[in-house]
Amino acid sequence: MTDRPAPTDDDVLGGLEPSQVRLRFAPSPTGLLTVGNIRTALFAWAFARHYGGKLVLRIEDTDAARNTPEALQYTLDSLRWLGIGWDEGPEVGGDYGPYKQTERMDIYADVVAKLLQAGKAYHCYCSQEELDQRREAARQAGQHSGYDGHCRTLTEEQVKAYVDEGRRPVVRLRMPDRPITFTDLVRGEITFLPENLGDYVLVRANGFPLYPLVNPVDDALMEITHVLRGEDLLPSTPRQIALYEALAEIGVGAGRTPRFGHLPFVMGEGNKKLSKRDPGAGLGEYMERGFLPEGLLNYLALLGWSIAEDRDVFTMAEMIEAFDIRKVNSNAARFDPKKCEAINASHMRLLEPAEFGRRVVPFLAKAGVLPAEPTEEQQQLLTAAVPLVQERMNTLSESVDMLGFLFVPDEAFTVDPDAAAKVLSGDAGAVLEASVKALSDLSDWTTEAIEAALRASLIDGLGLKPKNAFGPVRVAISGRRISPPLFESLELLGRDRSLHRLEHARTLLPAE
């Protein structure tokens, strides 16, 4: 395999009109989507949208033991949550369906029959034991250990003998005896030599079609023009190209081989490819923590691509406008959870306060802080509180700790034990007593008046530093050591509730 210069613009489109561009995302609904899956979908979606083409969603559900209707629905719901829409596929339809492989078995059987009839494929009767013996012998001789073509030219007598033994054949593709060269949209021109490319299996002995068959057949029949996929699949690409060429010769599909772009690995800790079992690999974790879909997608786009050298934060509309597959870096990209969270935080700051408030409601509702549809009074309080926390939060789930104290009834309000142990001690008793006195006599319950009263009482009156003066008050009214700005929080909480919580906090002081 050799690498050469990157493709030109003509190589990218290959003579097509931009609107003819067709890409596919073909997940297997066996569980949660990973960040690697999502990045592939994102790049395919951005590529299609950039040229005004189409994205096809195709479901590779032939693994009956692992695929479930629930997993399929989760996949569809996840893509919708991300905002990655598809133009053809499940729940949308299209002219090239069906879009589930389990509904296309007759199609595959018909294509295999045509490949066999045209001599592009053949039956292989070799047993696994025979294959293993010949491979080991090849290794011992320092030769390529792939399939040696033993059944390529069987006579009728040899076939009959195998059949009489009760052997059930697999179907193999007859690979061409020449190098296979293609221009990868990410890596440039790549050549695979024929001695490294053995005839591979298309159909198992039980008649079940395999991925190396169904994937290219679906691409051909759905007229897919460009395929973006992971770097780990690169070794199988020349085999797929050979099948595309064979399909074209027997009149299956549009007679076109898609242009490939192999995306770099997403690496986790220890310079290892990020596994679906690694923390931070699954989409569900980000949904649960309250990442914005646009924030997560923005970060995943940076794993191999950038909109500009000096810019990391951008909208999906801006990505679509700027996306160029030739600018995808072929080097592995490292997943950085901290940067992912920072990018998400930047997108949270970009939201209009009203929209930010709308997005935190489901998290507050799940925690029992608010109903799914807040009352008018609750909504007004949330609207007033949002500007106090929007700049301080990295994920939407943090809203529970940051805003929950404003909505929880006083009878259900609790102080975090750790915060109480660390802050409600020492001078805290004097602070709480002085705070109650200062605020009880306050005629104007505004942020400015509250701040002036507490500063006069605690800093000037008790001679305390701000941290020691305001820490006990913060814990008393919010239940935590970290909260929105203190004086604004007191104003929003109101006089009666604030004084009630200050008095309650005094009961938590350690006995003298």
From TrEMBL:
Q: What subcellular compartments does it reside in? A: Cytoplasm
Motif 'KMSKS' region located where?
273-277
Primary residence:
cytoplasm
- Does the entry feature the keyword Aminoacyl-tRNA synthetase, yes or no? yes
The regions listed as transmembrane in this protein's record are: none
Its recorded reaction(s) are: tRNA(Glu) + L-glutamate + ATP = L-glutamyl-tRNA(Glu) + AMP + diphosphate
Q: Which residues are in the Aminoacyl-tRNA synthetase class I anticodon-binding domain? A: 357-505
Q: Where is the Glutamyl/glutaminyl-tRNA synthetase class Ib catalytic domain?
A: 20-339
Single Gene Ontology MF annotation: ligase activity
Q: Which family does it belong to?
A: Belongs to the class-I aminoacyl-tRNA synthetase family. Glutamate--tRNA ligase type 1 subfamily.
Its recorded name reads: Glutamate--tRNA ligase
Q: Which organism is it from?
A: Kribbella lupini
Q: Write the lineage as a comma-separated list.
A: Bacteria, Bacillati, Actinomycetota, Actinomycetes, Propionibacteriales
Q: Gene name, please?
A: gltX
